[in-house]
Specification:
Elements (H helix, E strand, L loop, with lengths): L1 H14 L3 E6 L5 H6 L3 E4 L17 H5 L1 H20 L7 H20 L10 H9 L6 H11 L18 E5 L5 H24 L4 E5 L3 H4 L2 H16 L2 E5 L4 H5 L4 H6 L11 H9 L1
Parallel strand pairs: 1-3, 1-4, 2-3, 4-5
Helix pairs in contact: 4-5, 4-7, 4-8, 5-6, 6-7, 8-10
């Protein structure tokens, strides 16, 4: 599986001008990326690299369609908060509405006040806005505390990574199992910002997501992944999901949307159990 993907990445690098971004949960793509003079971004609690999950692409599309951009960002922030809260039943309708209201206010102020990377909102801004909403937002605010002021505050910094390299590998191997899903979701949103910028340049953005089944295990991340899959293709993105076992994918309710929006499916040798599931499908 990994060899097949690396061979395709190398082929794309040599025969196209596309940007190539890899989400690497197991830390196995760095030797290839290094050989191609790419950028490895290590996301871990002790890393000097930071990604701000509140980033949005500052381009003409933002100024022409601010409400559409903010609505898209709100969908991501709600999915992120749902994953962070970690409740069996997710967020309540009231909590979703409050998050949406806070996100709209934060970004409306941001767009109106000469937006720049230096004054980009952070998770702490979201938590402060939630605290102003009183008891209805308290559960979400309390869940964010660990990511704002606690031991996992690695995502409460402004982005300080070089995203100009043509081939980039996000190495999230050192994140724990729960944080890994949070990291994959945030990387996905960061890649979406790159897709938005590349669209104006008429450039394709290839995005490889290893261990893709991790994003499909939870309802909130699987719904967001299916939505972003469709949006990537519409904006010149080329997403590729990579997984070891077919049954991990087929157990997700959202996988049909992903299959329906995929032009090409590459199957290697399957385990006997997976072959039976595929034959049934």
């Amino acid at each position: 599986k990994s060899f097949t993907v690396k061979r395709e990445i190398l082929d794309c690098f040599l025969t196209t001008t596309d940007d190539i971004i890899i989400c690497d949960p197991e830390g196995e793509y760095y030797p290839l990326v290094s050989a191609l003079n790419g950028q490895r971004i290590r996301i871990a609690s002790n890393s000097e690299h930071h990604i701000n999950p509140m980033d949005i692409a500052i381009n003409d599309y933002l100024f022409e369609n601010p409400m559409e951009v903010i609505a898209e960002k709100s969908g991501f922030i709600i999915s992120l908060c749902e994953l962070i809260v970690g409740s069996r039943y997710g967020l309540t309708g009231e909590e979703r509405s409050v998050i949406d209201m806070c996100v709209k206010k934060i970004y409306s102020d941001f767009v109106q006040n000469e937006p720049s990377q230096e004054n980009m909102p952070m998770l702490s801004d979201l938590q402060n806005a939630l605290n102003e909403q009183g008891e209805v937002a308290q559960r979400v605010s309390n869940s964010l505390e660990m990511f704002v002021n606690g031991s996992q505050n690695l995502f409460n910094h402004r982005t300080n990574i070089d995203m100009t390299n043509r081939i980039i590998c996000f190495d999230i191997k050192e994140l724990g199992s729960q944080l890994k899903k949070v990291g994959m979701l945030i990387v996905q949103d960061t890649v979406w910002n790159r897709v938005s910028l590349n669209r104006n340049l008429k450039k394709n953005t290839r995005y490889y997501i290893d261990e893709f089944h991790l994003l499909l295990k939870d309802q909130q991340t699987s719904q967001y992944s299916a939505e972003i899959w469709k949006r990537f293709r519409k904006w010149g993105g080329v997403p590729t999901g990579i997984t070891q076992n077919v049954k991990d994918l087929l157990s997700s309710a959202e996988v049909e949307n992903i299959f329906d929006n995929s032009d090409f499916i590459y199957m290697l040798n399957q385990a006997a159990g997976d072959r039976d599931i595929l034959a049934e499908k």
